[in-house]
UniProtKB/TrEMBL annotation:
Pfam families: Methyltransf_25. It comes from Streptomyces lasiicapitis. InterPro entries: Methyltransf_25, SAM-dependent_MTases_sf. Signal peptide: none annotated. Residues 58-92 form the Methyltransferase domain. The lineage of its organism: Bacteria, Bacillati, Actinomycetota, Actinomycetes, Kitasatosporales. This is Methyltransferase domain-containing protein.
Amino acid sequence: MAIGSNTDDWLQDTRRSCDTVAASYAEQLRNLLDEAPEESAFLRLFADLVHTNGGGPVADVGCGSGRITAHLRQLGVDAFGIDLSPGMVEVAGVTTPLSGSNSAP
């Protein structure tokens, strides 16, 4: 198989798979930042770095259910999410305020 020969199929399969599990994925990861203080600390450092360097906007590429995007916004970062899966972006919009989030074409 040549490299890139089935890219469209792969993208559609990936999108469909992510759409299928979007709600359960969001539920499973809902409290992860509370359970992973090192991740929260890293995001605080990142937010401080963004603020120190003039602010955003910051793109959360592959935002999934939007938990990182939402956390960055709570830290005052002008963040928005982008994901391949419209289902993930829909869940993100329902579970967190992600103005400007969108799915990739």
